[in-house]
Specification:
This protein is α/β, with parallel strands linked by helices. The strands form three sheets. It has an eight-stranded mixed sheet, with helices on both faces. Strand 6 and strand 7 form a beta hairpin. The protein is globular and about 60 Å long.
Length: 296
């Protein structure tokens, strides 16, 4: 008699089959951040998930931040960190340190991918003119070398994908004068996904998704149309820090991304569960008229 656990594994593979067929050769942009970048076991799990996506025919691209690691190094060298409305005030010394730390994180991720037998290439937004930046002003305040994205040129990413590389991007952009700017990784991932007309944009962070009841972590909504998400913002169900995240998702969809997923990177293999199962672990947001996979 075959053990039930092996039958369960077979069921999972069968459930994944239509998704593998549907998204074969499609681009998926994974924004990687939060606790999954700090915890080594979670970090390894995310890399394994992305490598599996690559090996079953997806074209994944990782865009990562590293705010917690930057803060750790700022403290380590005796510099002071100051935030205004959640944005790090970035003078020239902090900018130099941030770029060094993000490059270090980037190459660690490249090494982990290549250790699993997949070719990876680590780049930043300055490479190939990928992310052209301009200075961000916060209510008229100059907060240093913090940037908004002015223009995206995805040629370097298309070239890497064509050569069968898995691109791993950290969000440092450059302006016309050659100044470097630290860019929010969520915004960079959305801009890259929209420029590539990606099939999926997946945010891995420290939130479970959109909750029907903000106080109940078990009430995560699996799938939402854009108009449903707008209604939840209007009635206050989506509030606080989730509002800019959801608005970012809706903007990406309006610019051509097919589906945007928000999921909790603290759950092992949440990326695979979200993409390859009917219900997933987080929230998928899509344009009206798109097929819902889970009828709750």
């Amino acid at each position: 008699m075959v053990s039930q656990k092996y039958l369960d594994k077979a069921e999972v593979l069968i459930e994944a089959l239509p998704y593998i067929q549907r998204f074969n050769r499609k681009i998926i942009v994974v924004k990687y951040g939060g606790s999954a970048m700090i915890d080594e076991a979670l970090k390894q799990g995310v890399i394994e998930d992305v490598v599996l996506l690559k090996l079953v025919g997806f074209k994944p691209i990782i865009v990562h931040g590293g705010g917690k690691e930057i803060s750790r190094w700022v403290d380590k060298v005796g510099m002071k960190t100051r935030f205004i409305d959640g944005l790090r005030v970035t003078d020239s010394d902090t900018m130099e340190l941030a770029e060094m730390v993000l490059a270090k994180v980037n190459k660690e991720l490249v090494s982990k991918v290549q250790a699993l037998g997949v070719k990876a290439a680590g780049i930043c937004g300055k490479d190939g003119g990928l992310l052209k930046a301009k200075k961000k002003l916060l209510d008229g305040q100059d907060i240093g070398f913090v940037g908004d994205i002015d223009k995206v040129d995805v040629k370097i990413l298309k070239d890497l994908l064509e050569k069968d590389f898995l691109p791993i991007v950290f969000p440092i952009g450059m302006d016309n004068e050659g100044n470097s700017y630290n860019i929010n990784a969520d915004e960079a991932a959305a801009a890259i996904a929209t420029a590539l007309k990606a099939e999926k944009l997946a945010y891995l962070s420290d939130v479970e998704g959109v909750r029907k009841d903000p106080q109940d972590p078990e009430s995560v909504i699996s799938e939402l149309y854009v108009n449903e998400a707008e209604a939840l913002i209007e009635d206050g169900t989506i509030s606080g820090g989730m509002i800019p995240k959801i608005e970012n998702c809706m903007d990406a969809i309006s610019r051509g991304v097919s589906r945007v997923h928000i999921m909790d990177g603290r759950i092992p293999h949440s990326l695979l569960l979200e993409i390859f199962t009917n219900k997933g672990t987080g929230t998928a947001i899509m344009k009206e008229g798109k097929e819902k996979y889970c009828n709750e």
